[in-house]
Amino acid sequence: MLASLSLIIFHLSFSLACSEAHEHIAGAINPEDSVAMMTSYGVNTLISDSGVIKYRIVTERWEVNTAKQPTRWEFMKGIFFEQFDEKFRLQAYIQADTAWYFDQTHLWKLRGRVSVRNVDGLIYTSEELYWDGYRHEFYSNVYSKVVTPERTIEGTYFRSDEAMTRYTVTNSKGSFIAEDIDKKDEQQNQPVQGTAAADTVAPPPIRPVQQKHATGR
User: Fold this and answer.
1) Closest CA to 126 of 111, 138, 106, 137
2) Mean pLDDT over residues 93-115, rounded?
3) Is the model's pLDDT at 173 over the cut of 80?
4) Residue 6 parent element (H or E)
5) d(Cα 73, Cα 133) in Å, to the nearest integer?
């Protein structure tokens, strides 16, 4: 009888165990893992450099994300910069379809119909351009085109100082004015170095002084 009672208890326990539902739940996703800390819409902001207004930044959407590593500012709807001199006269502009600013390394990454133009007539275009705030230079490893009043240069590697007055284009081809025909920079696959009397400077780590329609967490 004791054996029969033990058998009944075993079958009852087994039945209860089989009837219990085990729900498999994944860990919750923390929205702070990827959501921007601050999102601003319709931004038209003046930028100061050493206490002097030097730039204007215009963008449809500006996100500040400190959750992603490295931390960054994201401009997924495009960006437009205007540069001014001390008398607030327009000197140049920089624009791109998309941009990221990595604040820890002071590095700008511009992508999609990137264009730089200054008042002296230099026009730079590419699909990707980096600006290194520590080294004070522009560079690109994709097809780039530089057009000045004197010549047009195309190449797959570009490097320049911040003012785009001294630049190098390699794997290049281009057209030049007559007096440059005998120069080495006409040849294919040779570095082409140029100069221009421009003062086109990519913005330093920027400090907004006015901003509209900001939302944040």
Assistant:
1) 111
2) 94
3) no
4) helix 2-19
5) 15
pTM: 0.67
Q: How far is CA 55 from CA 13, 16, 22, 212, in A?
A: 76, 72, 60, 17
Residues 6 or more apart whose CB falls under 8 angstroms from that of 129 comprise 96, 110, 114, 116, 138, 139, 140, 144, 158
Q: Which helix (H) or strand (E) holds 80?
A: strand 79-84
| Residue 138 confidence (pLDDT) above 50 | yes
DSSP string for residues in 127-193: EEEEEETTTTEEEESS-EEEE-SS-EEEESEEEEETTSSEEEEES-EEE--GGGTTSGGGSTTS-EE
Is the pLDDT at 207 greater than 50, yes or no? Answer: no
Dihedral sign computed on CA atoms, order 205, 209, 212, 216:
positive
Q: Let me know: does 83 contact 93? Beta carbons within 8 Å.
A: yes
Please name the amino acid found at residue 179. Answer: E
Q: How far apart are CA 191 and CA 124, in angstroms?
A: 17
